[in-house]
Structure formats: structure tokens, C-alpha cells
Specification:
198 residues, 6 helices, 5 strands, globular
Amino acid sequence: MLLSSFTPDLIEAGCDEVGRGCLAGPVVAAAVILPKNYTHELLNDSKQLTKEDRISLQLDIIRDALAWAVAEVSNEEIDEINILNASFKAMHLALDRLTLRPDFLLIDGNRFKPYGEVKFECVIKGDGKYLSIAAASVLAKNYRDDLMSKFSEEFPGYGWHTNVGYPTEEHRDGIRQLGITPLHRRSFQLLPSQLELF
């Protein structure tokens, strides 16, 4: 059973990001403020859910949330400022877009760059512990999966409609055969380095 809040008396936003380990595409973050004592029997870490569950949950989250927002940081900016800073920036951008100002932030993971003066708590595997983080993980994943599916039509041959940019064998085969696209992160190791023996 996921917890509804960390600070019962404060307006609390859960934040999560997806796509940090991908070779292509943006990193996407979401921020969600749920009502106090919110419950949902299906809501959990987005990685534990089927696509159908996530789509159904997104409708519930958008309907029930007091505020929610999604933001992305491009692959070009990831190359400029590195993926960790890009993840923090995506979360900050999502927080900027909330129509309700949070008093407290619940962040999935173990690091975060402070957002103004707002207090925060980092929670490792928070998307499996707090409903607001789980809700953010669902919105961010759905948004990014849809985006990469659209990109796969523009750049076929990399399997983005299924691997959404992660380093699968199909994706790496596409890089070997077709080269890289404008959406690839050039600062990442796109292919495993081969140790050649002479």
C-alpha cells in the first residue's frame, strides 16, 4: 500500500523523471499534487504497470489531481549540461508549470537540486512508496513513450516504438546500420566499446 503523503499538513508535490538511461530523445519529468488522503488501488510505480493500466491511470490522475504538469529537456541540452542536471531541470520546469504552489516536494531518487526555498525529501524508489511520486511516474512515462513512438515513425529502424530509446540490441543494431539521428545523445556511449586484440 502506497502512502498518500509525507507531510500531512503541507501542499505536497511528487516528482519523477523518465528517460535518464536512454540513448536518444529527451528526459521527461512530471510533478503531481494529489488531494490529502488520496487512495487508488491500482496506482504504483509505472514500471510495474501494463501500458493499458498506465493509460487508464493517467485519466484518473488528471481527473483527481489538484495540479499536475509535465516537462521535457531535449537531447541537445542533455549533451550540454549532462543528464543529471537535465533531469533536475526537467523537474524544475514541471514544478514551474503547476497551477498550485507546493510547500513540500517528494523527489524520486537520491539527489535533487533545490527548487527555490521549497523544502524537499529524496526517496529512493519513491515511485513504489508514495502515491504522488507514482502518479508523476505514470504521467512522465506515458508522455515520453508517446513521444518516442511518434519519433519512431520519423526515424524508423531503431525500434523506438518499443524500446523508447533505451539501449536495446535492436536500437544499437539500428545505430550500427543507419548511424545516429538528430535525437541521439552524443555525450552518451551509443555503442559498447570493443577491445580489439592484435
